[in-house]
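Reply to dn_fold:

You asked what the input looked like. This is it:
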Amino acid sequence: MKVKECITKEVVTVSPEATAKEAFGMLKSMKIRHLVVVKEGVIRGIVTDRDLRRPQASDMFKSWDELYRISDDFQVEDIMTSPAITIDADADIKEAARTMVKHRIGALPVTDAHRGLAGIITDIDLLKALVAS
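and this is what came back:
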């Protein structure tokens, strides 16, 4: 099975200049875990709910602001993973799974023949494909 057969085509993107607070709001309101960072049609990186967490966060916190880096002091480009690890839409889903396991990540932006953003494949998309086969 090809990656393009099980991707999510409606990708939520964010600008590198957006604030971490804006990115956090998008993730929470849309109930998603990954935003592809795009500027001028080019994939610049990916930001996840994990990227927004403070690295030194303890088990004791009083508010979301204390657990997450969601102030206007951080822009997406400050916390995103860049460059994003991507996969071609025509790749086999086993290659996508291997890449995600190797890099311990939960999603891959999917590129088309022109290296444009074609979609995103997540760990949940892979599980759905496995169950359907």
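The chain has a mean pLDDT of 87.
Hope that clears it up.
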